[in-house]
Each structure stands twice: as structure tokens, then as C-alpha cells.
Amino acid sequence: MGIYILRRLALIIPTLVGIMLLNFIIVQAAPGGPVEQLIAEMEGHGGSALARAAGGDTGGEVASASSGDTRGSRGLPPELLAEIEKMYGFDKPAPERFLKMLKDYATFDFGDSFFRDRSVVELILDKMPVSISLGLWSTLVIYLISIPLGIRKAVHDGSRFDVWTSSAIVVGYAIPGFLFAILLIVLFAGGSYFDWFPLRGLTSSNFEQLNWYQKIADYFWHLALPVTANVIGGFATLTLLTKNSFLDEIGKQYVVTARAKGLEEKQVLYGHVFRNAMLIVIASLPGVLVSLFFTGSLLIEVIFSLDGLGLLGFEAALNRDYPVIFGTLFIFTLMGLVLKLISDITYMLVDPRIDFESREGA
Fold first, then answer.
1. What are phi and psi of 112, to 5 degrees?
2. Which key words tag this protein in UniProt (predicted)?
């Protein structure tokens, strides 16, 4: 196992570099960078933007830009254009900027945001609790629902319970999470019917004045609708995965033998089948976490005005805030690769018969 882990850790570095290079090239070719935005602002607002260009300092040399010939730069002196490009770090050629970015990222130095006057690390740490809250509680609820439901569907395969729950799962899977979020707002957050839940934020404005149990209640009151919207989009796949995994194990010879020995059905199910059937479910956990933390929560955070990583990345993309874009991309990719490695290690711990080292050497 040790050799396999070392190999996987060594592969993380070229994988990260490849992903960062690909995205750097894509963003390099995209029009409308921060230089163009500042030029447009200067032409529209005059003096304040000129002062910002002359004295501002963003510290963001890690980004890429399409800052060559800007359409709106014809009325500005070349010296000012050169100063703007230097301010954003675009006075250097693209390969040099990319190599500097890799060098800085190796020490987790992501630079400063172009438009927020804060470092990227501070922004990520500030937004992380919201995304962790939404992702962890959604994952917990998904597993608490999906595993028992999947097991029962496998045990009662073909029954009326199995049929009607499958119908409900298909309907839930067909509805995108963000559409269900809008429906929840319309029904329960003052949209058209009931005004039972808050529409924005993770806590109330008077949160600090509440006692400890009121803080807990307020926290979960704000999370109720976003977590529900996340769960609807995530539990269907895991439920069917659990059911199919258990059905596959139930049909194997060792289960027939255990039943022939006179073991009770619960002993067969939870003493023999459960461990083997849960392998694939455990392996899916890192993928679920990555999806809920970094991708699936984007629209949910936007809809419910939750100031987390998803909303941070979305606004950074709109504003062409390249240090934030690349910093969050680096963190997300690194965490995804590490979680995938943890998934493989968990596989081997749960079932020692699995040997990834021998597979790689084959």
C-alpha cells in the first residue's frame, strides 16, 4: 500500500500542473479581462478610476489576460495603458506569468484579489465555513436516507414499496436541484404561500445576541431549505447504487450457504452482505463531497444568497478576478485528487483483498 500511495502522491503534481496549464490557456484566449474592464470604467467615470489606475496595487501577477489590443484604449495615453498592465501583472509574457504562478502556488501564495482588496487565501478561508456547512450536512442527510432506503429496496425487490419509491426517486432525479430550490422558496420562504424559512444567509442578524441553543436552532433554520434542495438532487443516485450493490451480493453463493446454515435474515444481511455491498458506496463518498462542496452548491448558494465558495467562484468568473479563479481552481483540484486517493485507501482498508499495487504492475 505504501508504494501505491507514494505513486499516487507523485502523480498529483503533474496532474495539477496540467489542469492549471489547460485553464490558463483557455482564460488567456477569453476576451474581456480586468484591463479592459478598468479601461471601460475609466472612460465612463473619469477621475476616480484614473486615480485607482495610478496608485492601485493588486499584487495579482499570477493571472492570465487578453490584454493586448483593447478596443476601448484608443483615447488613453500609452504610458497609462502600460501602467495598468503592470498593475495587474500583464506586462510580462504569458509563459513567464504561468511559471511564476506555479512557483507561488507551490507555497500556497495565491496573491490578492483584483477587486476585493483582500488576499485569495483570506477570501477562501472566509467563505469555507458556508460551503462546508452546506456540503457536510447535505452529505450526511443523503447517506442517512439513501443507505437504509437502498437496503430496503434490495430486500423487497419487485414489491409495491420498491416500485413506488423508484418512481419517486426518478421524479426527484429528473428535477434539477436549483429548480427545486426555487420551488422551496416559492412555497416556504415568502414566495407565494408560507413564510416559514429565511431566504438569505447562514445566520440571523441578531445571531450574536442569542444563547447557545437558540444559535443552534437559528443555524439549522437557515440551512433547512438549501440542504433539502441539495439532498433532492443527490440521494437518487446513491439509493440506486446501494440497492444494486446489495442485490448483486444477495445473489452470491456465500449468502445461499449462510441461509442454508440456518442464520437469520438480519444476520445474513448485516453480518455478511453489508460489508461487501458497502464497498462501492464508500468509494463514492469522495465524489459526493467534491460535487456538493465545489460544483453542486454553486446555484444553491446563489439562489439562497449563501456567501460560500461557489458564489465566490461565480462572482470571480463574472468579474474576471483571475487570482481568485485560479486560486480556487487549484484548491478544488488538489482536494479532489486527495479525496480520490483517500477513497482508494478506504477500499483497501474495508476489503484487504483489493490490491491496487498489483493492478498497476499488471
1. -115, 150
2. Cell inner membrane, Cell membrane, Membrane, Transmembrane, Transmembrane helix, Transport
pLDDT band per the 50, 70, 90 thresholds, residue 76: low
pLDDT at 277: 79
Q: Which of 129, 303, 133 is nearest to 227 (CA)?
A: 133
Euclidean distance between CA atoms 100 and 142, whole angstroms: 42
d(CA 244, CA 236): 12
pLDDT tens, 289-346?
Answer: 666 665 556 778 888 888 888 788 888 888 778 888 888 888 888 887 887 787 777 7
Q: Both 131 and 108 in a single domain?
A: no
* 122 three-state secondary structure: helix
Residue 210 lies inside a defined structural domain of this protein: yes
pLDDT digits (tens, 9 = 90+) for 85-107: 666 667 778 888 888 888 888 88
53 pLDDT exceeds 50?
no
First to last CA, the chain: 15
Q: Lowest-confidence range among 5-9, 50-54, 340-344? A: 50-54
Sign of CA dihedral 72, 73, 76, 80: positive
| DSSP helix/strand/coil, 90 | coil
Residues 140 and 90 in one domain: no
- Integer angstrom CA distances of residue 273 from 29, 129, 279, 309: 53, 37, 11, 39
> How far are the Cα atoms of 24, 111, 113, 244 from residue 121, in angstroms, in the given order?
20, 8, 10, 42
* Domain termination residue (choose one: 319, 338, 356): 319
Cα–Cα distances in Å, from 291 out to 104, 136, 138, 296, 308?
A: 27, 11, 11, 5, 14
Please state, as a whole number, how many other Cβ atoms lie within 10 Å of the Cβ of residue 181.
Answer: 23
Q: Quick one: 174 and 237 in the same domain?
A: yes
Collapsing DSSP states into helix, strand and coil, what is residue 112?
strand
Same structural domain for residues 96 and 131? no
Could you tell me the CATH number of the domain that includes residue 298?
Answer: 1.10.3720.10
- Predicted TM-score (pTM) of the model is 0.71
Measured CA to CA in angstroms, residue 142 lies from 175, 238, 243, 344 at distances of 16, 8, 14, 21
